[in-house]
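Late entry, evening session. Most of the bench is empty. Finally got around to the prediction I had been postponing all week. Sequence below, unchanged from the version circulated by S.P.
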Amino acid sequence: MRQRFAIIVTVVLVLGVLIAINAASYESEDERQDTELSPNRSTYHSGATGTRALYDFLSESGYPVMRWREVPAQLLGETRQRVQTFVIVGDIALSIDEDEVRSLLLWVKGGGRLVLVDRRPDDRILPPSDHWVVATEFGDFPSLTVNPGNVGEMTENVKPIQPVQPTLLTQNVESVMPSRFAAHISITSTNSNSNNGPDDTAGAARSLQNSDEFENEPSATPEPVSPLAPAQEESTSGSPAPVVHVENSRGALLVDYPHGNGRIVILSDPYIFSNGGLSLRDNLQLAINLLTMREGLIAFDEYHQGKGTTRNALIGYFSGTPILPILGQLVALILVIVWTRSRRFARPLPLKQIDRRSSLEFVASMAEIQQRARAYDLAIENVYSRTRRVLARYAGMDYNSPRAEVAARVAARSSLESRSIEVLMRQCEEAINGAPVTERQSILLVKRLRDVERALGLRMRARDARQATQKV
């Protein structure tokens, strides 16, 4: 019972240590600083660079919004909800591959509306419109020292920007406040017959907006095309030129242009959508205009933010918490306990056995080893040590007493000669200390030691008698 109690206490202590370690690691993960250099634009993120405030506002205001957590190819599926506006807010955690680019552009071409909010969107999802090419160029590069939650640092030396023309995207917007890291959008023409420079091209893009922009946008949207259906013909009723809605002295910040039956909207500053900048000026109104101008479901891309449904929903719910590591460690402990059940907790102990062998076998084995190794000095030392000890005890002296005194005292109490005993002791000690000795000499010395023991009656002790009995 004591052993089981000790095991239970050990398991409880181990669980407590594991829970403490996981709790500490979870706390340290929450302390990571949110920066513009490595932002988290997810609608799940409530930090300064996240977009959770915009998503919650749209959801609570009654707009149909959702978090899209599947591959873009599912936008073309007929069994999915009819998504009319697809929003990608960069920087994204997962890059968009070629198949996803084709799926997105095919969906836009079939009538979808793609909203890109990024300082540097992927050029592959910015297809040219006729002979017009749209691209973005960086402004100031963010640094680690800038706090995205500090409005003063994010908008330093930046003035509010007014729309360049009244459009549905700038409705009820007097001015917007971008960050000082906003990129600008360039519009160029690939038409070799055009003599317009970059500035003239942008001006032409602004002037080419026709009445279709105002009349057709609020109307019912075309149905998304199925990937198995034949491709629809591109609409040629409106101008293919991109339309600039907001710009500053460096370039455009908000542009949209047609692609097939749909449109692509580009906003070059995610700060306007982020939790830290959404409340400035008319940033919120501009975001609402961009996302709700067309009726229908609004989907925020969470798949490329690393929140895809490739994982189990329950695992995704507890992601980022210490619950999953704790459960995994508990399962590992349970498996170890099950595996060790009915097994010995310690090393196996052998059954008690009675040694029926004679102790002289050890002596015979050691003698054979010493003989093969020619360790005659060791054999003499083994015998002489015992003999000197019994002689000293017989003489009533200490073991380390001089041999002359020991020999004299032994001779005084027996019939042996003192000189013969001393000579024998000296020869044995010299052999032990390295004097050359042969096998024959060692046998003679041992025989003489045994004769001394026999003459003094020192051999027949209880152990010697027992060994003699076992030998018989």
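Two things to note before I forget:
Residues 360-471 form one domain.
The chain has two domains: 33-228+237-319, 360-471.
Will write this up properly tomorrow.
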